[in-house]
Design a protein that fits this description.
By secondary structure, the chain is an alpha/beta fold. It has helices spanning 20-30, 43-52, 68-79, 97-103, 118-133, and strands at 2-10, 34-40, 57-62, 88-92, 107-109.
């Protein structure tokens, strides 16, 4: 992955939610990946970033037990012309494979995250999306 832009969208949570993007960035940087990261504090700000810049991947971060936050965020991403073709990775404390498939994410992480897997999953999601757009 070279010169990709990853947009992290934070669903409302607690103060620790802001640290989660960093936990995903570290393993990517350790693997020598060059990319730009943007962190949106909510879906509105995320859509503004997506409309103003080229985004390669969206990470939706929701560390609450609420089922509404992440679903509304992903539904909004799928409905918006600026973001409906972007690959989405979801981080959620708990999530079933059925839920992930139902809401249309390309990949997901739940607690506990095996951070050694992050680079290969991110690369695979971006590669798969590029291939589907050809």
């Amino acid at each position: 992955m070279a010169n990709e832009t990853i947009l992290f969208i934070l669903c409302p949570g607690d103060i620790f939610t802001r640290a989660i993007p960093f936990m995903f960035e570290v393993p990517l940087r350790r693997q020598g990946h060059e990319y730009t990261t943007l962190v949106a504090q909510n879906i509105k700000e995320g859509l503004q970033f997506a409309e103003a810049q080229h985004i390669d991947l969206v990470f939706v971060i929701d560390d609450t037990l609420d089922r509404v936050n992440y679903r509304n965020t992903i539904k909004t991403l799928h409905a918006n012309p600026s973001t409906n073709q972007l690959p989405i990775i979801l981080y959620k404390i708990t999530l079933s494979e059925v839920d992930a498939h139902e809401i249309g994410v390309d990949a997901y992480f739940t607690m506990p995250v095996d951070y050694h897997e992050v680079p290969s999953i991110v690369e695979a999601v971006i590669a798969r999306k590029r291939k589907s757009l050809l």
